[in-house]
């Protein structure tokens, strides 16, 4: 059977079922009214014959336990606990830049090179200290041999040991200066070789693994040691979501509450947990800042992006609820349900709905506990009421 023939057959079957259902439904009676909220217009009733009632499923509106979910609009920021500045340790002009904004780097990766006389002087000082240490070691070793043969007094030998210890301390101090300047072990090994020329190029290395999110330096720019920020690096596999919660909801929010975030541009849902609740209220918005540590799969979330966030709190409330399938929409897109006023007699009721949880939806107004609503087959009632 072709797709067209199959579709024609389905339409025909649905038409026959609808005609049969409409035949069994009584006309609306304007003289009968249904009890509704005082703010709603009373709805007309219509009857369904007993042999058609089997097509409907009627359940009472009842209370259900819903977790309190708080909806808010939030913006994305970098995870400050995994974001840091790359600051030059030496002064001098930038001679080479190796990375750009958006580059993914590993820890200790060279980012740029600075031509620095500070580093050159430090290497010279290290070499002099190393020479003094080597000389002091040889003198100490010769003194030990003379002492063993009784050629010198023990005090003279102890003097040579003291001189060697001082020289070794100078080497360690000068070596620490090279490490502060960011020299690698290979650079330090080269600095120990007395015959090699002193290279003034010092690499600025990445302090963490992450992505270059900002570049604030240009070739040839003069940087100052400890003052010039050259790059901002962030591990964007996690980000901060900054939401704002009103006073009426803040008591329900706790550290560790799960949060879901979405953006119309993406199909997937992002997940995180509340890691911080601010101690102050924003005087402009009268809201409390809530910070969420959120995973960033695919690195889709960017700084200053807006998302819709839902905080799933641990607070529980008992609410009036009906099955989701019981709620339809009328021509004005208002949510409606069909209430069984008497056996076989139904009325359309406009309701106000709240949050949805699993297969149930909260009813804020329009129904009272115990009223019977149609949970299955209500679509046929809507067709019947429209037809009549």
User: Which strands sit side by side, in order, in the main sheet?
Assistant: 3-12-15-14-13-16
Count of distinct structural domains: 4
Oligomerization state: single chain
Q: Count of DSSP helices? A: 7
Instruction: Indicate the percent of residues in helices.
Output: 25-40%
CATH-defined fold name of the largest domain: conserved putative lor/sdh protein from methanococcus maripaludis s2 fold
Strands, helices and their partners?
Blueprint: H1 3-24, E1 45-47, H2 50-53, E2 57-60, E3 62-78, E4 83-87, E5 92-97, E6 104-105, E7 110-115, H3 117-148, H4 154-180, H5 185-192, E8 201-205, E9 210-215, E10 222-223, E11 229-234, E12 238-246, H6 247-250, E13 258-262, E14 270-281, E15 287-295, E16 306-323, E17 328-329, E18 335-342, E19 345-350, E20 352-357, E21 360-365, E22 372-376, H7 378-387
Antiparallel strand pairs: 1-19, 2-22, 3-12, 3-16, 4-11, 5-7, 5-10, 6-9, 7-8, 9-11, 12-15, 13-14, 13-16, 14-15, 16-21, 17-18, 18-19, 20-21
Helix pairs in contact: 3-4
